[in-house]
Amino acid sequence: MRLDVVTIFPEYLEPLNVSLVGKARARGQLDVRVHDLRAWTHDKHHTVDDTPYGGGPGMVMKPEPWGEALDEIVASGGPEAQPPVLVVPTPSGRPFTQELAVELSLAPWLVFTPARYEGIDRRVIEDYGDRFDVREVSIGDYVLAGGEAPVLVMVEAIARLLPGVLGNAESHRDDSFAPGVMADLLEGPVYTKPPEWRGHEIPEVLVSGHHGRIARWRRDQALARTAANRPDLIERADPEAWDKHDRAALEALGWERRTDGRFGRPGEAVEE
Ligand SMILES: C[S@@+](CC[C@H](N)C(=O)[O-])C[C@H]1O[C@@H](n2cnc3c(N)ncnc32)[C@H](O)[C@@H]1O
C-alpha cells in the first residue's frame, strides 16, 4: 500500500518510522511518503494561509499549494495507477471507525491532507471530489490543533489490518469492533503469566483447557464491558447479533429485550 501525507509539519509524522508501521515500511509492505506543503509555495515566506472570506477569527489554508501538491503527487503514480483515495482529516467529517479502517485498508493508495488553522479552502475538496474518492474523516468529537495526530491514528489502525503486518494474522479477529463476531462489542479483559500477582488470580476458566467455556466466558466479559462502557452499542446492535446465551447474559445484567428483539436499559425507550 502507498501512503502520501502532505503537511506543514513533516517532522510530526516521524512516529511513522517506529514500531509496527516502521517495520512494515522497512519490509516494503508500506510505501510512506511525507511531503512538506511549503514546497509548493512560491513566495519568499512560503505562505500557506490567508484570512477567511466573510471575516471571523483564524486563518484558512490557501487552495493553490494544496492543488499543486496533490496534482503532482497524483501524477507521480503514472497513467496506469489506480487513483488514490483522498483522506481529509476534519472534525466535521464522518467518524473514523474500525469499519472505515477495514474499507480504507483495501485501497492500494491513500493520500492524507492534515490541515492546520481553520482548515483547507473548501474548493480543494470540491475540486478533487469531482474526480476522486474523497473521504472527510473525524477521529472524534473534539478539535485538535492539526490533522497530523489524526493521520497517525488512522495510519496505525489501517496498517495493522494489512496482510503480513501483524505477526499473528489472527490478532485482530477478536479486537473490539472487529467485523463479524465482535462487530458490536468491546473486547473483554486479557491476562498473562504469572497466574497470581499481588493477590489477584487469573480467572480459573482460562486455564481449564476447555475452548468452548473459554470462548463463552470471553463473550460474557465482552458483553458486560460493552454494557457498562458503551451501552449505545448494545442498544443499536442488530438483534441477529445475539445468541440465546448473549440474551440471557444481557438479561442477567439488567437489560430488557424489546418487542423488536433489540435490548434497552430498563425503563428507557429504544431509539427507532
Ligand atoms: C483547529 S482544526 C480546525 C477546526 C475547524 N475550525 C472546525 O471547527 O471544524 C485544524 C485541523 O485539525 C484537524 N483536526 C482537528 N480535530 C480533528 C478531528 N477530531 N478529527 C480529524 N481531524 C481533526 C483537521 O485537519 C483540521 O482542519
TrEMBL record:
Keywords: Cytoplasm, Methyltransferase, S-adenosyl-L-methionine, Transferase, tRNA processing. One of its GO terms (molecular function) is tRNA (guanine(37)-N1)-methyltransferase activity. S-adenosyl-L-methionine binds at residues 139-144. One of its GO terms (cellular component) is cytosol. It holds the Pfam family tRNA_m1G_MT. Its main location: cytoplasm. Its EC number is 2.1.1.228. InterPro entries: Alpha/beta_knot_MTases, tRNA_m1G_MeTrfase_C_sf, tRNA_m1G_MeTrfase_TrmD, tRNA_m1G_MTases_N, tRNA_MeTrfase_TRMD/TRM10. Residues 1-235 form the tRNA methyltransferase TRMD/TRM10-type domain. It is found in: Cytoplasm. Transmembrane segments: none annotated. GO terms for biological process: tRNA N1-guanine methylation. It catalyses: guanosine(37) in tRNA + S-adenosyl-L-methionine = N(1)-methylguanosine(37) in tRNA + S-adenosyl-L-homocysteine + H(+). Specifically methylates guanosine-37 in various tRNAs. Homodimer. Belongs to the RNA methyltransferase TrmD family. NCBIfam families: PRK00026.1 (NF000648), trmD (TIGR00088). This is tRNA (guanine-N(1)-)-methyltransferase.
